[in-house]
Amino acid sequence: MTVRRLFPLALLMTFALASCEKEEAALPAQPAALLQSRWQLTQIDNFPVTASSYSETGKSYLEFVELGTCTVGLGPCNNFSGRYSLAGGGQELRITPQIATRAACPVQDLETRYLDNLALTSRYEISGDELRLYDATVPAPRLLFRRTAP
């Protein structure tokens, strides 16, 4: 990864984590299965995701950071961050619209669908090493992820 690509990532992560720290005192207990993993994106709606983000080793992912209920991740084109909240005994999940870097790439439409579906999330399920994110309008998951090492 070049310095040019690392700088926006470092800057984005700094802002994301700095904003997370402000709400630390008011956090409810968070489910460990959701938080202690990096979730690699495998499917958007019915479309399998095989597109690499920056290289064959840099696949699209999502992480939930317990400190301040923040999300961080990598789409097919850009790094992103935002916030999440849990309710209803832990299965209800809301994810804010994510703030992303602005690099253009050949799969920009796919990334737009990814980020839009994140913001539509209303609940989640974890089964084994698979995370499924659902919105309130369709019974099938909008996004599928596979657990990987952080």
Query: What is the multimeric organization of the chains shown?
Result: single chain
Instruction: Label the structural class.
Output: alpha+beta
The main pleated sheet reads as:
10 strands, antiparallel
> What's the tally of helices?
3
**Shape, per Cα inertia axes:** globular
Q: Low-confidence parts lasting 5 or more residues at pLDDT below 50?
A: 1-7, 21-29
Relative helix content: 10-25%
- Estimated share of beta-strand residues: 25-35%
The average pLDDT value, as a whole number, equals 81
DSSP E strands, number: 10
Q: Cα distance, first to last residue?
A: 18 Å
Question: What Rg, in angstroms, do the CA atoms define?
Answer: 15 Å
Instruction: Give the topology string: H per helix, E per strand.
Output: HHEEEEEEEHEEE
What is the topology?
Layout: H1 3-21, H2 32-35, E1 38-44, E2 47-48, E3 61-65, E4 70-74, E5 79-87, E6 92-95, E7 99-100, H3 108-120, E8 123-127, E9 130-134, E10 143-148
Antiparallel strand pairs: 1-2, 1-3, 1-10, 3-4, 4-5, 5-6, 5-7, 8-9, 9-10
Put the structure in a nutshell.
This protein has 150 residues and is an alpha+beta fold. It is built from three helices and ten strands, in the order H-H-E-E-E-E-E-E-E-H-E-E-E.
Can you offer a commentary on this structure?
Helices cover 24% and strands 33% of the residues. It is built from three helices and ten strands; from the N terminus they run H-H-E-E-E-E-E-E-E-H-E-E-E. Strands 1, 2, 3, 4, 5, 6, 7, 8, 9 and 10 form a ten-stranded antiparallel sheet that branches. A hairpin with a 4-residue loop joins strand 5 and strand 6.
